[in-house]
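User: quick one
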Amino acid sequence: MQQRVAVIGAGAAGLCAARHLSRDLTLFHPVVFEQSDCVGGTWVYTENTETDQYDLPVHSSMYSSLKTNLPKEIMAFPDFPFDKNLPSFIGHQDVLKYLINYSEAYELNKFIKFHTRVESVQLLVENGKIRWNVQFCNVKEKHVPHEKQVFDAVMVCNGHYAIPKIPNIPGLASFTGIISHSHTYRHAEDFQGKKLVVLGAGASGIDIALDLAKFAESITISHWKKTLKSTLPENMKQRASIQEVVKNEVVFSDGSREVVDGIIFCTGYNYDFSFLHPDCKLAVNDNRITPLYKHILHTHHPSLSFIGICSTICPFPLFSCQVRFVIASLTGSMQLPSKEQMELDIEKDYQKRLAEGLPNRHAHAMGPRQWQYNDDLCHLAHIQTVPDVVRKLYDAVHDERTWNVANYKKNNYKLIDDNTFDKLETAVH
Ligand code: FAD
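Assistant: Done. Structure below.
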Protein backbone atom coordinates (compact mmCIF):
# COMPACT_ATOMS: atom_id res chain seq x y z
CA MET A 1 0.00 0.00 0.00
CA GLN A 2 1.23 3.51 -0.83
CA GLN A 3 2.72 5.35 2.18
CA ARG A 4 2.33 9.10 2.59
CA VAL A 5 5.68 10.55 3.68
CA ALA A 6 6.16 14.09 4.98
CA VAL A 7 9.62 15.51 4.27
CA ILE A 8 10.46 18.63 6.28
CA GLY A 9 12.78 20.92 4.29
CA ALA A 10 13.83 21.18 0.64
CA GLY A 11 17.57 21.61 1.15
CA ALA A 12 20.00 18.99 -0.16
CA ALA A 13 18.74 16.36 2.32
CA GLY A 14 15.03 16.92 1.63
CA LEU A 15 15.57 16.94 -2.15
CA CYS A 16 17.51 13.69 -1.93
CA ALA A 17 14.65 12.22 0.13
CA ALA A 18 12.07 13.41 -2.43
CA ARG A 19 14.11 12.05 -5.32
CA HIS A 20 14.36 8.53 -3.89
CA LEU A 21 10.81 8.43 -2.49
CA SER A 22 9.41 9.48 -5.87
CA ARG A 23 11.20 6.68 -7.75
CA ASP A 24 8.18 4.44 -7.24
CA LEU A 25 4.95 6.34 -6.65
CA THR A 26 3.05 3.12 -6.06
CA LEU A 27 5.09 2.80 -2.84
CA PHE A 28 5.30 6.40 -1.66
CA HIS A 29 3.52 9.69 -1.91
CA PRO A 30 6.04 12.31 -0.75
CA VAL A 31 4.99 15.78 0.40
CA VAL A 32 7.93 18.14 0.98
CA PHE A 33 7.27 21.10 3.25
CA GLU A 34 9.54 24.07 2.60
CA GLN A 35 9.10 27.31 4.50
CA SER A 36 10.91 29.46 1.90
CA ASP A 37 10.07 30.11 -1.74
CA CYS A 38 12.78 27.91 -3.27
CA VAL A 39 14.88 24.76 -2.95
CA GLY A 40 18.50 24.76 -1.74
CA GLY A 41 18.30 25.46 2.01
CA THR A 42 21.49 26.93 3.38
CA TRP A 43 22.86 27.47 -0.16
CA VAL A 44 20.25 30.19 -0.80
CA TYR A 45 22.45 33.21 -0.09
CA THR A 46 20.77 36.30 1.32
CA GLU A 47 21.96 39.74 2.39
CA ASN A 48 19.45 39.54 5.25
CA THR A 49 20.92 38.50 8.57
CA GLU A 50 18.00 38.51 10.99
CA THR A 51 14.61 37.84 9.37
CA ASP A 52 13.31 37.29 5.83
CA GLN A 53 10.41 38.99 4.02
CA TYR A 54 7.93 36.81 5.90
CA ASP A 55 9.45 37.60 9.28
CA LEU A 56 11.00 34.15 9.63
CA PRO A 57 14.51 33.89 11.06
CA VAL A 58 17.08 33.81 8.25
CA HIS A 59 18.00 30.18 7.53
CA SER A 60 21.11 30.50 5.32
CA SER A 61 24.59 30.85 6.77
CA MET A 62 26.33 31.59 3.48
CA TYR A 63 28.69 34.53 3.06
CA SER A 64 29.21 36.33 -0.22
CA SER A 65 32.72 35.07 -1.07
CA LEU A 66 32.20 31.47 0.10
CA LYS A 67 33.77 28.74 -1.96
CA THR A 68 33.12 25.10 -1.09
CA ASN A 69 35.63 23.40 1.18
CA LEU A 70 35.16 20.11 -0.69
CA PRO A 71 35.81 19.65 -4.41
CA LYS A 72 32.66 19.33 -6.50
CA GLU A 73 33.81 15.88 -7.67
CA ILE A 74 33.01 14.41 -4.23
CA MET A 75 30.37 16.87 -3.08
CA ALA A 76 27.92 15.62 -5.67
CA PHE A 77 25.20 13.06 -5.09
CA PRO A 78 26.71 9.83 -6.43
CA ASP A 79 24.39 9.72 -9.46
CA PHE A 80 24.26 13.42 -10.36
CA PRO A 81 27.60 15.13 -11.13
CA PHE A 82 28.21 18.89 -11.09
CA ASP A 83 28.75 20.75 -14.36
CA LYS A 84 32.06 19.46 -15.73
CA ASN A 85 33.10 22.97 -16.83
CA LEU A 86 33.26 24.29 -13.27
CA PRO A 87 36.50 24.27 -11.25
CA SER A 88 36.71 21.84 -8.34
CA PHE A 89 36.06 24.41 -5.59
CA ILE A 90 32.99 26.41 -6.50
CA GLY A 91 30.98 29.37 -5.24
CA HIS A 92 27.75 29.03 -3.27
CA GLN A 93 25.81 30.17 -6.38
CA ASP A 94 27.04 27.10 -8.28
CA VAL A 95 25.94 24.75 -5.51
CA LEU A 96 22.49 26.35 -5.46
CA LYS A 97 22.28 26.00 -9.24
CA TYR A 98 23.24 22.33 -8.92
CA LEU A 99 20.46 21.71 -6.39
CA ILE A 100 17.94 23.52 -8.60
CA ASN A 101 19.09 21.37 -11.56
CA TYR A 102 18.76 18.24 -9.40
CA SER A 103 15.23 19.21 -8.44
CA GLU A 104 14.33 19.90 -12.07
CA ALA A 105 15.97 16.73 -13.42
CA TYR A 106 13.89 14.53 -11.10
CA GLU A 107 10.79 16.77 -11.33
CA LEU A 108 10.69 17.26 -7.59
CA ASN A 109 8.95 20.65 -7.50
CA LYS A 110 5.57 18.99 -7.93
CA PHE A 111 6.05 17.32 -4.51
CA ILE A 112 7.11 20.52 -2.72
CA LYS A 113 4.76 22.84 -0.83
CA PHE A 114 6.69 26.13 -0.80
CA HIS A 115 6.07 28.91 1.75
CA THR A 116 4.86 26.18 4.07
CA ARG A 117 6.31 25.88 7.53
CA VAL A 118 5.81 22.77 9.62
CA GLU A 119 4.73 23.85 13.07
CA SER A 120 4.08 20.58 14.78
CA VAL A 121 4.52 16.85 14.32
CA GLN A 122 2.51 14.70 16.65
CA LEU A 123 2.30 10.97 17.17
CA LEU A 124 -1.07 9.45 16.29
CA VAL A 125 -1.89 5.87 17.21
CA GLU A 126 -4.78 4.50 15.12
CA ASN A 127 -5.85 0.87 15.55
CA GLY A 128 -2.43 0.11 17.00
CA LYS A 129 -0.72 1.65 13.93
CA ILE A 130 1.61 4.62 14.35
CA ARG A 131 0.99 7.59 12.10
CA TRP A 132 1.91 11.27 12.22
CA ASN A 133 -0.21 14.36 12.43
CA VAL A 134 1.65 17.20 10.70
CA GLN A 135 0.42 20.74 11.25
CA PHE A 136 1.64 23.45 8.91
CA CYS A 137 0.96 27.04 7.94
CA ASN A 138 1.39 29.26 4.92
CA VAL A 139 4.05 31.83 5.86
CA LYS A 140 2.71 34.37 3.31
CA GLU A 141 -0.87 34.32 4.47
CA LYS A 142 -0.87 34.62 8.20
CA HIS A 143 -4.69 34.89 8.45
CA VAL A 144 -5.23 31.51 6.71
CA PRO A 145 -5.95 28.83 9.32
CA HIS A 146 -3.28 26.22 9.92
CA GLU A 147 -3.80 22.87 8.25
CA LYS A 148 -3.23 19.33 9.41
CA GLN A 149 -2.51 16.20 7.40
CA VAL A 150 -1.82 12.64 8.46
CA PHE A 151 1.28 10.79 7.23
CA ASP A 152 2.62 7.26 7.57
CA ALA A 153 6.18 8.50 7.97
CA VAL A 154 8.10 11.73 8.55
CA MET A 155 11.62 12.50 7.35
CA VAL A 156 13.10 15.50 9.16
CA CYS A 157 15.52 17.34 6.83
CA ASN A 158 15.51 20.78 8.45
CA GLY A 159 19.29 21.44 8.46
CA HIS A 160 21.37 22.33 11.46
CA TYR A 161 23.32 25.45 10.54
CA ALA A 162 20.67 28.05 11.32
CA ILE A 163 20.57 28.58 15.10
CA PRO A 164 23.86 30.18 16.20
CA LYS A 165 25.57 28.94 19.33
CA ILE A 166 27.50 31.54 21.35
CA PRO A 167 29.43 30.26 24.36
CA ASN A 168 29.11 31.82 27.79
CA ILE A 169 32.21 33.94 28.16
CA PRO A 170 32.72 35.90 31.37
CA GLY A 171 32.48 39.64 30.72
CA LEU A 172 31.07 39.34 27.19
CA ALA A 173 28.16 41.60 28.11
CA SER A 174 30.69 44.37 28.88
CA PHE A 175 32.31 44.12 25.42
CA THR A 176 32.16 47.49 23.67
CA GLY A 177 33.06 46.28 20.14
CA ILE A 178 31.25 44.41 17.37
CA ILE A 179 29.90 40.96 18.18
CA SER A 180 29.04 38.76 15.22
CA HIS A 181 28.52 35.06 14.42
CA SER A 182 29.35 33.06 11.28
CA HIS A 183 25.57 32.79 10.71
CA THR A 184 25.28 36.56 10.15
CA TYR A 185 28.69 37.10 8.53
CA ARG A 186 28.29 38.25 4.90
CA HIS A 187 31.13 40.53 3.66
CA ALA A 188 34.78 40.87 4.74
CA GLU A 189 34.70 44.48 3.44
CA ASP A 190 32.42 45.40 6.37
CA PHE A 191 35.43 44.88 8.66
CA GLN A 192 37.91 47.06 6.74
CA GLY A 193 40.84 48.14 8.96
CA LYS A 194 39.49 46.42 12.10
CA LYS A 195 41.37 44.40 14.70
CA LEU A 196 39.38 41.21 15.15
CA VAL A 197 39.28 37.96 17.05
CA VAL A 198 37.70 34.97 15.29
CA LEU A 199 36.74 32.39 17.90
CA GLY A 200 36.81 28.80 16.64
CA ALA A 201 39.03 27.00 14.13
CA GLY A 202 36.52 24.68 12.51
CA ALA A 203 35.98 24.83 8.74
CA SER A 204 33.98 28.09 8.96
CA GLY A 205 36.30 29.74 11.51
CA ILE A 206 39.39 29.24 9.38
CA ASP A 207 37.64 30.17 6.16
CA ILE A 208 36.11 33.35 7.59
CA ALA A 209 39.40 34.36 9.25
CA LEU A 210 41.19 34.02 5.88
CA ASP A 211 38.44 36.01 4.17
CA LEU A 212 38.63 38.78 6.78
CA ALA A 213 42.43 38.92 6.57
CA LYS A 214 42.05 40.52 3.10
CA PHE A 215 40.46 43.65 4.64
CA ALA A 216 40.97 43.72 8.40
CA GLU A 217 44.07 45.20 10.04
CA SER A 218 44.67 42.07 12.10
CA ILE A 219 43.00 38.74 12.79
CA THR A 220 43.59 36.55 15.80
CA ILE A 221 42.11 33.11 15.42
CA SER A 222 41.48 31.84 18.91
CA HIS A 223 40.92 28.14 19.50
CA TRP A 224 41.61 25.16 21.74
CA LYS A 225 42.76 22.83 18.97
CA LYS A 226 46.37 21.92 18.06
CA THR A 227 48.26 24.86 16.52
CA LEU A 228 47.43 25.13 12.81
CA LYS A 229 50.51 24.05 10.85
CA SER A 230 49.69 25.91 7.68
CA THR A 231 51.25 29.18 6.54
CA LEU A 232 48.79 31.98 7.34
CA PRO A 233 48.55 35.55 5.98
CA GLU A 234 50.95 37.99 7.67
CA ASN A 235 48.18 39.84 9.52
CA MET A 236 46.78 36.62 11.03
CA LYS A 237 47.96 34.83 14.14
CA GLN A 238 46.73 32.10 16.49
CA ARG A 239 46.04 32.20 20.19
CA ALA A 240 44.51 29.99 22.85
CA SER A 241 40.78 30.15 23.53
CA ILE A 242 39.11 33.18 25.12
CA GLN A 243 39.01 33.20 28.91
CA GLU A 244 37.20 36.47 29.48
CA VAL A 245 36.37 39.81 27.96
CA VAL A 246 36.88 43.14 29.71
CA LYS A 247 35.27 46.06 27.85
CA ASN A 248 37.30 46.26 24.60
CA GLU A 249 39.95 43.77 25.68
CA VAL A 250 40.02 40.02 25.12
CA VAL A 251 41.91 37.88 27.65
CA PHE A 252 43.10 34.53 26.30
CA SER A 253 43.54 31.39 28.38
CA ASP A 254 47.36 31.60 28.04
CA GLY A 255 47.19 34.94 29.89
CA SER A 256 47.84 37.13 26.83
CA ARG A 257 45.47 40.05 26.12
CA GLU A 258 44.45 42.08 23.09
CA VAL A 259 42.44 45.24 22.56
CA VAL A 260 40.13 44.54 19.60
CA ASP A 261 37.31 46.09 17.57
CA GLY A 262 35.23 42.93 17.24
CA ILE A 263 34.74 39.25 17.97
CA ILE A 264 33.36 36.89 15.31
CA PHE A 265 31.98 33.72 16.86
CA CYS A 266 32.52 30.68 14.65
CA THR A 267 31.39 28.45 17.46
CA GLY A 268 28.81 26.34 15.69
CA TYR A 269 25.07 25.88 15.80
CA ASN A 270 22.33 24.26 17.86
CA TYR A 271 19.92 21.65 16.55
CA ASP A 272 16.29 22.72 16.54
CA PHE A 273 13.36 20.32 16.60
CA SER A 274 10.93 22.60 18.39
CA PHE A 275 8.15 21.50 15.99
CA LEU A 276 8.24 17.95 17.38
CA HIS A 277 5.54 17.41 19.98
CA PRO A 278 6.91 16.14 23.33
CA ASP A 279 5.17 12.79 22.69
CA CYS A 280 7.73 12.19 19.91
CA LYS A 281 10.16 11.69 22.80
CA LEU A 282 13.25 13.10 21.14
CA ALA A 283 15.92 14.39 23.52
CA VAL A 284 18.68 16.85 22.66
CA ASN A 285 21.31 16.95 25.36
CA ASP A 286 24.40 19.09 24.72
CA ASN A 287 24.11 18.43 20.95
CA ARG A 288 23.51 14.70 21.41
CA ILE A 289 20.17 13.58 19.96
CA THR A 290 18.59 10.40 21.29
CA PRO A 291 17.32 7.80 20.67
CA LEU A 292 18.44 7.63 17.00
CA TYR A 293 19.50 4.28 15.56
CA LYS A 294 22.46 4.90 13.22
CA HIS A 295 21.93 8.66 13.87
CA ILE A 296 18.75 8.38 11.76
CA LEU A 297 15.78 6.32 12.98
CA HIS A 298 13.82 6.96 16.16
CA THR A 299 13.99 3.65 17.99
CA HIS A 300 10.48 3.94 19.51
CA HIS A 301 8.82 4.57 16.16
CA PRO A 302 11.24 4.22 13.22
CA SER A 303 8.83 5.84 10.76
CA LEU A 304 10.19 9.11 12.22
CA SER A 305 13.65 9.67 10.73
CA PHE A 306 16.29 12.39 10.56
CA ILE A 307 18.59 13.02 7.61
CA GLY A 308 21.82 14.97 7.99
CA ILE A 309 22.28 15.01 11.76
CA CYS A 310 25.92 13.91 11.42
CA SER A 311 28.67 16.52 11.21
CA THR A 312 32.17 16.59 9.66
CA ILE A 313 31.05 14.63 6.65
CA CYS A 314 30.90 14.64 2.89
CA PRO A 315 27.23 15.65 3.10
CA PHE A 316 25.47 14.81 -0.17
CA PRO A 317 26.88 11.25 -0.56
CA LEU A 318 26.12 10.53 3.11
CA PHE A 319 22.57 11.92 2.77
CA SER A 320 22.07 9.58 -0.18
CA CYS A 321 23.04 6.55 1.98
CA GLN A 322 20.83 7.71 4.87
CA VAL A 323 17.80 8.35 2.65
CA ARG A 324 18.02 4.96 0.94
CA PHE A 325 18.51 3.31 4.36
CA VAL A 326 15.26 4.92 5.60
CA ILE A 327 13.43 3.86 2.45
CA ALA A 328 14.63 0.26 2.89
CA SER A 329 13.23 0.31 6.42
CA LEU A 330 9.90 1.79 5.25
CA THR A 331 9.43 -0.73 2.45
CA GLY A 332 10.48 -3.60 4.70
CA SER A 333 13.27 -4.66 2.33
CA MET A 334 15.49 -4.24 5.40
CA GLN A 335 14.40 -5.80 8.68
CA LEU A 336 15.25 -3.56 11.63
CA PRO A 337 16.62 -5.08 14.83
CA SER A 338 14.43 -4.92 17.95
CA LYS A 339 14.12 -1.61 19.80
CA GLU A 340 16.42 -2.98 22.53
CA GLN A 341 19.05 -4.05 20.00
CA MET A 342 18.91 -0.66 18.27
CA GLU A 343 19.37 1.07 21.62
CA LEU A 344 22.32 -1.18 22.43
CA ASP A 345 23.84 -0.22 19.09
CA ILE A 346 23.42 3.49 19.93
CA GLU A 347 25.02 2.99 23.34
CA LYS A 348 27.93 1.03 21.85
CA ASP A 349 28.62 3.80 19.33
CA TYR A 350 28.38 6.45 22.05
CA GLN A 351 30.64 4.61 24.52
CA LYS A 352 33.23 4.04 21.78
CA ARG A 353 33.31 7.77 21.10
CA LEU A 354 33.71 8.59 24.81
CA ALA A 355 36.51 6.00 25.08
CA GLU A 356 38.25 7.74 22.17
CA GLY A 357 38.13 10.98 24.17
CA LEU A 358 35.32 12.68 22.27
CA PRO A 359 33.06 14.95 24.31
CA ASN A 360 29.29 14.34 24.47
CA ARG A 361 28.66 17.19 22.02
CA HIS A 362 30.51 15.26 19.30
CA ALA A 363 28.12 12.30 19.53
CA HIS A 364 27.24 12.72 15.82
CA ALA A 365 30.66 13.86 14.56
CA MET A 366 31.96 11.58 11.83
CA GLY A 367 35.25 12.61 10.14
CA PRO A 368 37.13 9.36 9.37
CA ARG A 369 34.23 7.28 10.80
CA GLN A 370 31.91 8.29 7.97
CA TRP A 371 33.19 5.74 5.40
CA GLN A 372 32.60 2.70 7.59
CA TYR A 373 29.29 4.27 8.63
CA ASN A 374 28.17 4.65 4.98
CA ASP A 375 29.26 1.07 4.25
CA ASP A 376 27.36 -0.23 7.30
CA LEU A 377 24.14 1.55 6.30
CA CYS A 378 24.41 0.31 2.74
CA HIS A 379 25.24 -3.23 3.81
CA LEU A 380 22.25 -3.35 6.15
CA ALA A 381 19.93 -1.87 3.51
CA HIS A 382 21.37 -3.96 0.63
CA ILE A 383 22.11 -0.84 -1.41
CA GLN A 384 25.15 0.50 -3.23
CA THR A 385 27.68 2.33 -1.06
CA VAL A 386 29.79 5.41 -1.83
CA PRO A 387 32.74 4.63 -4.16
CA ASP A 388 36.13 4.55 -2.46
CA VAL A 389 37.44 7.37 -4.63
CA VAL A 390 35.27 9.77 -2.58
CA ARG A 391 37.12 8.79 0.60
CA LYS A 392 40.50 8.99 -1.14
CA LEU A 393 39.92 12.49 -2.51
CA TYR A 394 38.32 13.68 0.75
CA ASP A 395 41.41 12.49 2.66
CA ALA A 396 43.80 14.06 0.14
CA VAL A 397 42.03 17.44 0.40
CA HIS A 398 41.89 17.15 4.19
CA ASP A 399 45.60 16.48 4.25
CA GLU A 400 46.48 19.39 1.96
CA ARG A 401 44.27 21.73 4.00
CA THR A 402 46.43 21.09 7.09
CA TRP A 403 49.55 22.61 5.47
CA ASN A 404 48.11 24.76 2.68
CA VAL A 405 44.89 26.19 4.09
CA ALA A 406 45.19 29.50 2.25
CA ASN A 407 45.62 27.93 -1.21
CA TYR A 408 44.14 24.43 -1.32
CA LYS A 409 41.00 25.67 -3.11
CA LYS A 410 43.11 26.57 -6.16
CA ASN A 411 43.56 22.87 -6.95
CA ASN A 412 41.55 20.97 -9.51
CA TYR A 413 40.78 17.27 -9.55
CA LYS A 414 39.33 14.72 -11.90
CA LEU A 415 37.77 11.39 -10.97
CA ILE A 416 39.16 8.61 -13.15
CA ASP A 417 37.11 5.69 -11.83
CA ASP A 418 35.55 4.45 -8.57
CA ASN A 419 39.01 4.10 -7.03
CA THR A 420 41.23 6.72 -8.62
CA PHE A 421 41.42 10.47 -9.05
CA ASP A 422 43.92 12.80 -10.66
CA LYS A 423 45.17 16.13 -9.37
CA LEU A 424 45.33 18.37 -12.42
CA GLU A 425 48.36 20.51 -13.15
CA THR A 426 46.59 23.80 -13.84
CA ALA A 427 45.69 25.70 -10.70
CA VAL A 428 42.79 28.19 -10.68
CA HIS A 429 43.65 31.73 -9.57
P1 FAD B 1 19.60 22.92 4.79
O1 FAD B 1 20.35 23.22 3.56
O2 FAD B 1 19.79 23.82 5.95
O3 FAD B 1 18.05 22.83 4.40
C1 FAD B 1 17.03 22.72 5.35
C2 FAD B 1 15.74 23.26 4.75
O4 FAD B 1 14.67 23.02 5.67
C3 FAD B 1 15.75 24.76 4.49
O5 FAD B 1 15.36 25.01 3.16
C4 FAD B 1 14.74 25.32 5.49
O6 FAD B 1 14.06 26.45 5.01
C5 FAD B 1 13.81 24.14 5.68
N1 FAD B 1 13.09 24.12 6.96
C6 FAD B 1 13.64 24.15 8.21
N2 FAD B 1 12.67 24.07 9.14
C7 FAD B 1 11.49 23.98 8.47
C8 FAD B 1 10.13 23.87 8.89
N3 FAD B 1 9.79 23.84 10.18
N4 FAD B 1 9.17 23.82 7.94
C9 FAD B 1 9.49 23.85 6.61
N5 FAD B 1 10.77 23.95 6.17
C10 FAD B 1 11.74 24.01 7.09
N6 FAD B 1 28.67 21.03 2.49
C11 FAD B 1 29.44 20.58 1.46
O7 FAD B 1 29.19 19.47 0.95
N7 FAD B 1 30.48 21.32 0.98
C12 FAD B 1 30.78 22.55 1.45
O8 FAD B 1 31.71 23.19 0.99
C13 FAD B 1 29.95 23.07 2.51
N8 FAD B 1 30.16 24.32 3.00
C14 FAD B 1 29.28 24.84 3.91
C15 FAD B 1 29.45 26.16 4.31
C16 FAD B 1 28.57 26.73 5.22
C17 FAD B 1 28.75 28.15 5.64
C18 FAD B 1 27.50 25.95 5.73
C19 FAD B 1 26.51 26.55 6.69
C20 FAD B 1 27.34 24.64 5.36
C21 FAD B 1 28.23 24.07 4.43
N9 FAD B 1 28.08 22.74 4.01
C22 FAD B 1 28.90 22.25 3.01
C23 FAD B 1 27.12 21.85 4.65
C24 FAD B 1 25.69 22.01 4.16
O9 FAD B 1 24.97 22.29 5.30
C25 FAD B 1 25.23 20.75 3.48
O10 FAD B 1 25.96 20.62 2.28
C26 FAD B 1 23.76 20.68 3.09
O11 FAD B 1 23.47 21.72 2.20
C27 FAD B 1 22.79 20.61 4.24
O12 FAD B 1 21.53 20.34 3.68
P2 FAD B 1 20.22 20.10 4.58
O13 FAD B 1 19.15 19.81 3.62
O14 FAD B 1 20.54 19.14 5.66
O15 FAD B 1 19.96 21.48 5.34
